């Protein structure tokens, strides 16, 4: 019977593991020094080696050599590798998630191992356990027998009760880099004597999103499709993607407002069995790459910059809805035709349409009585009848940029690591009926730099940045309440962050730093009259009392 490649090439010792070097080193040293914990929690994305490393570690702790590597010659190693081994028990929590199953496990753990030193329980997808099952497991984890080790594996650690997490030694598995995945796929192809172009391996690695198992599965699938020499065309056919030349044609139709060309292209993709969601993702990545090259390297754009930003915002906003649509083809056609119609007739861009939806959504959350007035005179002008206007956003974005530069002067890597941990706490509130939207909006951004007073958060799309700035105070209060932090927040765009980062690095290399700048006051308009607004000044942060040192730790550099 044929054995799938991901099973055939599953590592059997630490030396064969791809990536996760820090975790492997720590576990090896724990065995060498006999510092073996009673419970471990392995968390991270799928296909990154959690269960594989758990199995290897279960054998390693029982190896008679105990030197950090499996000897594969002692009686314990031979027994642990056999199918008859009864002392390494794997449990699938997805199908054994009830309290009765965990109680049965508790009754068995007191039994001594049959041959090995330790009885090891590997509980996969542990987040699937019920609350009752977690409670039943809690006492066992708190006071386990000396001969028992638990290894819990999960892709959703935020769903595990903190009482369980606190009793485990936790390890987070990172995504495997495309270069590491591509190199490993090349080794497999050589051993399987498969002729495959190197750019195909790179494409598989990119599409796997850091999951080695998914990448090997895709390679296995392509091998079944093409038994001879595998080319990029074979990958595109199996993956449902477009060749770059066809993607460029679609872009040309889109940005030159050719409705007929768009419809004919979508029809052709559908008839060929292409994955329209995958095609739109390709489109987003290619447009994003063009904009990045334009902003960072000055590479000329083939199309209008604002149109490119608009379509990115539109696709990013609608991608989830597209996946859920009953008729994806119809949804995509109408969406793209609407984009072309709006741009071709100068009746407002798609980003403005998105902004209209965003503003409406925010008003429902904050104050149902507030209204949004939309005026159209050759271009769409948004007037929000409260204290948020175009002048407000310009003033606010300017303040956020100044605050970001000030925080980078004394930014420290340790403070940024704290904020990355704080960001994980927000995930617990994403389904909250009252404040879930605040958690989601914060999680749309990424912490980039932090000192003891401020955390800088960047957003990839301007529409998202405008959305969070509309109710900045609510977001800051929610963040401080959830995390227990007293820090302020600076919301900036991804473009501004990249500019500040380049400027900061250049200054540091020349022995300089940003110069501290006093934050201006926020301009707020009188809510009582939309015709004659009165400006008032409100301080959003206090100035530093003493001069700030010119040099701080270098912020995150990608």
Give an overview in words.
The protein has 558 residues and is of the alpha/beta class. The chain folds into four domains: 5-172, Rossmann fold (3-Layer(aba) Sandwich); 178-239, Orthogonal Bundle (Helicase, Ruva Protein, domain 3); 244-343; 390-538, 2-Layer Sandwich (GMP Synthetase, Chain A, domain 3). 51% of the residues lie in helices and 11% in strands. It has helices spanning 5-8, 21-32, 50-60, 75-81, 99-108, 131-142, 162-165, 178-191, 198-207, 212-225, 232-239, 244-255, 259-271, 276-297, 305-324, 328-344, 350-366, 390-409, 413-426, 436-443, 462-470, 472-483, 494-509, and strands spanning 39-43, 88-92, 119-124, 148-154, 169-172, 372-376, 380-384, 446-450, 454-459, 488-493, 522-524, 536-538. The strands form four sheets. It has a five-stranded parallel beta sheet with strand order 2-3-4-1-5, covered by helices on one side. A three-stranded mixed beta sheet has the order 8-9-10. Strands 6-7 form a two-stranded antiparallel sheet. Helix 5 packs parallel to helix 6 (131-142). The radius of gyration is 28 Å and the shape is globular. The two termini are 46 Å apart. Mean pLDDT is 81; it is low at 346-388 and 524-558.
């Amino acid at each position: 019977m044929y054995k799938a490649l991901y099973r055939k090439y599953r590592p059997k010792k630490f030396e064969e593991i791809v990536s996760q070097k820090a975790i492997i080193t720590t576990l090896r040293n724990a065995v060498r020094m006999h510092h073996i914990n009673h419970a471990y929690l392995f968390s991270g994305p799928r296909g990154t080696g959690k269960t594989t490393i758990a199995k290897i570690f279960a054998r390693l702790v029982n190896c008679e050599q105990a030197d950090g590597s499996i000897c594969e010659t002692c009686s314990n190693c031979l027994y642990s590798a056999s199918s008859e081994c009864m002392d390494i028990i794997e449990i699938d929590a997805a199908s054994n998630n009830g309290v009765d199953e965990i109680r049965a496990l508790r009754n068995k753990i007191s039994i001594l191992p049959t041959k090995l030193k330790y009885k090891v329980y590997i509980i996969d997808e542990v987040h699937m356990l019920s609350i009752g099952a977690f409670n039943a497991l809690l006492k066992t984890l708190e006071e386990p027998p000396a001969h028992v080790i638990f290894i819990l594996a999960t892709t959703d650690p935020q769903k595990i009760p903190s009482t369980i997490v606190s009793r485990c030694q936790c390890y987070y598995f990172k995504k495997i880099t495309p270069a590491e995945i591509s190199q490993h796929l090349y080794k497999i192809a050589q051993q399987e004597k498969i002729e495959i172009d190197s750019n195909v391996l790179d494409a598989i690695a990119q599409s796997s999103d850091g999951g080695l198992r998914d990448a090997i599965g895709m390679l296995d699938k392509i091998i079944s499709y093409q038994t001879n020499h595998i080319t990029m065309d074979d990958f595109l056919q199996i993956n449902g993607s477009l060749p770059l030349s066809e993607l460029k044609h679609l872009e040309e139709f889109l940005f030159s407002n050719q409705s007929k060309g768009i419809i004919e292209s979508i029809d052709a993709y559908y008839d060929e069995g292409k994955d329209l969601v995958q095609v739109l993702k390709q489109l987003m990545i290619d447009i994003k790459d063009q904009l990045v090259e334009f902003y960072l390297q000055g590479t000329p754009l083939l199309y209008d910059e604002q149109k490119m930003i608009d379509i990115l915002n539109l696709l990013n906003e609608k991608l989830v809805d597209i996946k859920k649509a009953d008729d994806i083809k119809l949804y995509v056609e109408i969406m793209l035709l609407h984009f072309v119609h709006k741009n071709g007739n100068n009746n407002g861009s798609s980003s403005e349409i998105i902004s209209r939806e965003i503003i409406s959504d925010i008003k429902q959350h904050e104050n149902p009585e507030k209204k949004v007035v939309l005026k159209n005179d050759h271009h769409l002008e948004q007037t929000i009848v409260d204290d948020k206007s175009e002048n407000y956003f310009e003033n606010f974005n300017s303040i956020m940029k100044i605050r970001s530069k000030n925080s980078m002067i004394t930014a420290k890597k340790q403070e940024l690591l704290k904020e990355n941990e704080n960001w994980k706490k927000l995930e617990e509130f994403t389904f909250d009926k009252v404040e879930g939207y605040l958690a989601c909006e914060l999680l749309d951004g990424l912490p980039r730099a932090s000192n003891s007073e401020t955390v800088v958060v960047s957003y990839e799309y301007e529409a998202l940045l405008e959305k969070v700035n509309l109710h900045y105070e609510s977001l800051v209060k929610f963040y401080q309440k959830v995390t227990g932090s007293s820090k302020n927040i600076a919301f900036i765009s991804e473009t501004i962050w990249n500019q500040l980062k380049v400027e900061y690095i250049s200054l540091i290399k020349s022995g300089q730093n940003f110069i501290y700048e006093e934050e201006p006051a926020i301009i707020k308009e009188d809510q009582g009259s939309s015709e004659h607004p009165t400006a008032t000044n409100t301080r959003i942060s206090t100035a530093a009392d003493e001069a700030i040192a010119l040099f701080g730790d270098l912020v995150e550099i990608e």
